[in-house]
Structures are given as C-alpha cells and as structure tokens.
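Lab notes, practical 5.
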Amino acid sequence: MILTLTINPAIDRTIIADRLVFEDRAYILDRSESAGGRGINASQVLHSFGAKTTAILTAGGAAGQRIEKLLAGRGFPYDAVHVKSESRTNLTISDKNGLTIKLNEVGQELHPGELTEIKKRVDAHLKKADWLMLCGSIQPGVPPDFYCEMIKMAKTHGVHTILDTDGDALLRALEAKPTAIMPNQHEAERLLGRALITRGHFLEAVDTMQAMGPECVILSLGARGAIGSSPNGVFEAIPPRIEAVSPIGAGDALGAAFTWSMEKKKPFADSLRWGVAAGTASAQLPGMAFPTMNQTRAVFKHVELRQVK
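Output from the prediction step:
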C-alpha cells in the first residue's frame, strides 16, 4: 500500500479562460473545483493505476468539510484529521495555450495537539504500507523538521519514503535520508541557492542534492522531462513533444507513477520513465484532470531514456 500525507490540503478552484492578457478582457470558458494538495492528487493517480492507496490529510472549517465531500467520490480511502483552522482555497487560471497563473494560500497554523494526532494517524497506517509519500507545503508554525520526523517514523516500520516539498521543510528532511526526493527546477534552485539554467547545471544539481542525504533524486524539469540519480546511475527521461493544455498537477502525476513503479519492484530507470510519461500525459489534459493507466502507457512508449553516467 502507498500512503500519502497532505498536511496542508486545499480546495483547488480552476478557471479556464480563452486567453490571459493584461489590460484587456478575457472570457471564462470553464470552471471546476476539486479536493487538492500534492498527496491527494498522487493518491488519485495511484488509484487510477489500480494501486492500493490511502490519503491522510487535515481538514478544517467549511473548506475542510468541502474537501471531504469532494473526496468522497474519488474511490480511494482517506483519513482526515479534523483541525480548528480553516483549510486553504487555491486558485488556478489557465488559458487555451497552456499559460497558467497559480495563486495559493499559505494555510493557517495548527495546534501542537493536532500535529500529535497527525503523527498518530500516520504511525497507525505505516504498519500496512510499503511507501509513504510526503507531499506539499507545511503551514506556518509547523516545525520545519516535521517531515524529518515522519521519515524517521517510516524507517522504524521499514517503509520507503518519497519527499515532494520545498524550502526549510525539504532542507531539514534531508537529515533523515529519505528514499527519494523530487524537487522541480524552482525548488532545487531555492534548496541550492543558485540558478539552474543549462543541462550541465541540472546534472551538477542532481549530484549535489544526492550528496545531501537522499538515496535517489528526481529533478523534474517540466516539458524537458526529468533527470534522476540513484545508486545504479544517473538517467535522463525525455518526453515526446506534446500540445500542453494544463501543466498543473503534472508533477504530482510524475511522483505517483514513479512510486507506483518502484512499489512494483521495477528498476529505477523504468520508474523514472513511467513518472515522466504520467506527467506528460497529465499536461495534455484540461484543468486538474489526471491520466489513466492507458493514457500514461501510450506516452510511455515515446519517452526516451538515456543513461548519463
């Protein structure tokens, strides 16, 4: 079973416009609302792939109730820790050309007792899990070593961990040596404190991040695919050219497909290829839609895999 943790979930409101321009009007073509957060999105992809998954999340106030209501129709089990603070609402605006603006609330503080309850729920589910996906931002006031504690807890159960977060939460979690981390380009730049522009920069960044503690590193590069480093080598997965409709959530699909493949004991390189295929397939879909196994498999055939070293 693959367990996902989304400590800072949100209602994701998505608007599709005919175009995004300054100082001129645009028209809304479609709008939608979904229960969001990186871990929740990952669980949706895992469920569509036929994997067993449980999503752990927080839910607070009217927005939290709405998140739970939206989750009820997803088809996979979830475990919501009820908190006093209102859950987030995020807004994404995309146009027909794939140009996207994403506006996220940072979230509200959690009480110490609520954090203790989250840890208890995770610990209880770890007894049946093979992988734990730690996904997304943490709220203000949550200790920056929170994910570090989760990784250490998972290790006591023999559970592999994949970390998908940013900032101090990412930096501090590296101390616990997670199985894998998967920053995108911007997150890697913030972690390393420098711009990453060229392919040489990307390869150097992957080596540097792996030396910081994780067993494996996946550097997600959007339309350019991903570079992955593992004890068995460094690999580059290059997707086919597509007409991107909405890139939002593509990284979540990448992480889910990678973890699904690793849970099935596939080689790291193949898992990287599956991840890039799912991310690419996701980008072809409108709004916050995620690919099916068949849609991902169709792209997988066209993902080029190169061993760099």
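Observations recorded by the TA: The chain has a mean pLDDT of 94. The longest helix spans residues 268-283.
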